[in-house]
Amino acid sequence: MDTFAALAHGMVVALQPMNLLFALIGVFLGTAVGVLPGIGPALTVALLLPVTYKLDPGGSLIMFAGIYYGGMYGGSTTAILINTPGESASMATALEGNKMAKAGRGGPALATAAIGSFVAGTLATIGLAFVAPYLVDIAVKFGPEDYFALMVVAFVTVSATFGDSPVRGLTSLFIGLTLGLVGIDKLTGQPRLAFGVPELLDGVEVTTLAVGLFAVGEALYVVSRRHQAEEKVEAVRGSLWMTREDWKRSWKPWLRGFGFGFPIGALPAGGAEIPTFLSYSAERRLTAHPEEFGKGAIEGVAGPEAANNASAAGTLVPLLTLGLPTSATAAMMLAGFQQYGLNPGPLLFAERPDLVWGLIASLFIANTMLLVLNLPLVGLWVRLLAIPQPWLYAGILVFATMGTIAAKPSVVELTMLTGFGVMGFLMRRYDFPIAPVVVGLILGPLAESQLRRALSISLGDPVTLVQSPISATLLGVALIALIAPFVLKNMSRFKATED
User: Fold this and answer.
1) What are phi and psi of 234, to 5 degrees?
2) For residue 65, is pLDDT > 70?
């Protein structure tokens, strides 16, 4: 009953006119940038972080959540129309969605994606509202060694699952952890890795790193590939509405997509890519029309898109209850919380219930807005695809620079922005994942402070890190997660050699 009361209070907060405006701006921007290939919700939130640092925290976070949901949906538009997923989670949608578009059924494909996103997103938000309080009750019992072990699990799973190579993921993580050491040591008061630069004594700004890696790095990477052939946009032909047969074939995949997306998205090593492909595989096996798969089966669009949006709500479970980001956008949202001096976790539910429950309630409103906006505005999203890339990325560079100057006017900050942009370009060029760098910078100092607290309490005895059943279990999970990718890779190589 407490959850219902808290959700009702959150709905009162979310329905305030300013918060409704923030939600509308968020879903509109999120869908718009999700439609544009290569510009995902993580980049958009990163660009808006320096612009929103003086705004109301609740409204800004509601807008960021709207961007997240909108970006997840918007990626399906490019996946269906030009076979270019705006987000990696929309890759499974492209398999059948683009075939439907080429067969003149782009309208029903976009409609089942929109309605499936609404259904699964609403169910997943209900799941978030009821699962989060239980996780908070467990998290309150965590000691410093348990929190340190939990962050080790986040470090290993995020770095091992982002990208194709666990070694590259771990390398990215250590870059982020090293950047997290810059500044004044909170225990001793001594400067670390500041190299005599006064501006570095406060540490590396998350917003500068995020904007540099995501926005500037992406712009440089796109410029380096400018000679590639342009994609042809498929016109949406025929009716946008689904037939009765389309509805009959879509509603079960929507529910199954939710079943895959929400629980996997809530795991520390979750994300949206795994459940979308699992959903696609399941629909391919369960369909009554196997001959249509590979030629434009509507189940292959309905299931993965539902899983995609359900996983977006799932990733907010560990973010809000434990302060653990499991995706690049969740890491950006964590940076948004910290920008206002807020640390997601069990204490946030007790200290700022209006903010947390207002954010959760706003997700229901954002979902409804997405459905109302996206079906009539398909034509507008298609026109966005016609924006020339040089104009688009030139605008992003200008916006990134101005945002950084507004947040912290400093030559050192602009130099760091440029340096991080070059680093982001090189990481993309050589296939190093970017999200672990941001996660390392945000969680590294927190993990260090929890480790030092645990060792201080035990008078420096490292055995304390495995004496608690919770920390011992979590460290065991982290060890398995670290070893498993290498074992699986070697097994696949051995099998390939035998064949």
Assistant:
1) -80, 130
2) yes
Q: Is 353 exposed, middle or buried, given 0-12, 13-18 or 19+ CB atoms closer than 10 A?
A: middle
Range with the largest mean pLDDT of 51-60, 356-365, 369-378, 474-483: 356-365
In this prediction, residue 497 carries a pLDDT of 64
- Indicate if the alpha-carbon torsion angle 105, 106, 107, 113 is positive or negative: positive
Q: Are 55 and 12 in contact (CB under 8 A)?
A: no
Q: 325-336 pLDDT, tens per residue?
A: 777 777 778 888
pLDDT at res. 264: 77
Q: What is the pLDDT of residues 392-439, one digit of tens each?
A: 778 778 877 776 776 677 888 888 989 999 999 999 888 888 878 877
Residues 193, 199, 203, 207, CA torsion sign: negative
Neighbours of 79 (CB within 10 A): 32
H or E segment to which residue 192 belongs: strand 191-192
pTM, two decimals, is: 0.70
DSSP 265-306: HHSTT--SHHHHHHHHHHHHHH-S-GGGTTT--THHHHHHHH
In angstroms, how far is CA 192 from the centroid of its own chain? 31
- Residue 190 to residue 210: CA distance in whole angstroms: 26
Written as six digits, the tokens of 423 are 């680093």
Is 397 within 8 Å of 414 (Cβ atoms)? no
CA-CA distance, 390 to 364, in Å (whole number)?
36
Q: Is the pLDDT assigned to residue 40 strictly greater than 70?
A: no
The Cα 331–Cα 206 span in angstroms is: 10
Report which of residues 287 and 307 the model is more confident about.
Answer: 307
Question: How much is the average pLDDT of 128-136?
Answer: 80
Tell me the C-alpha distance between 148 and 443, whole Å: 10
From the list 349, 415, 308, 271, the residue with the least C-alpha distance to 85 is 308
Backbone angles phi, psi at 191, to 5 degrees: -70, 145
Question: What is the per-residue pLDDT for 86?
Answer: 55
What distances in angstroms separate CA 340 from CA 24, 55, 57, 284, 402, one per listed residue?
A: 22, 9, 6, 46, 20
Residue 339 to residue 50: CA distance in whole angstroms? 9
- pLDDT score at 456: 84
In sequence order, what DSSP letters do the residues of 53-89 get, joined into one string?
A: TTS-HHHHHHHHHHHHHHHHHHHHHHHHHHS--SSGG
d(CA 407, CA 416): 14
